[in-house]
Model the fold of this input.
Amino acid sequence: MPGVLGLVAASCGGVQTRLCAELAEPAVRRGWRLAVTLTPTAARWLAETGELDRLRSLTELEVRHAARLPGQPRPHPDPATFLFAPASANSVAKLALGIADNQATTVLGDALGEPGVDIVVGYQVRDGRFAHPAWQGHLDTLRAAGVRSHRLLPGRSWTELLDLLE
Done:
């Protein structure tokens, strides 16, 4: 039986229509307990479309997008499995460089390199990103840390990422 899935999402096109339908709901059907963390912009996009409430209905845990205050209890258990999707080029770069300037990159940065923690990143980037001189280095850095990455292709369901989880 799957355990807790740390589902992390950034603000990429489609997050407001595909996150629940193609990742969160299928993950719950497969038996995962969701611990969801969003970038602030992704949370704003989901709130605007009503999808944030839909996402909240899929888990008894808080859907996070901001850091907790000192003295507040931790709202999520420590997942052994994370799925970061969709991940933007910006968030992939931040993760590779260790920049933890929002709750989403903080939770992933804290888990990166931890023994027994599995991280899959489903990134959605424009074709031109592959020509950027730093892009491949970011992917290589994450791979060296044990992260498995997969490009989200137009016209393909994001649900296929769930098959990559251990």
Notes: The chain is about 35% helix and 15% strand.
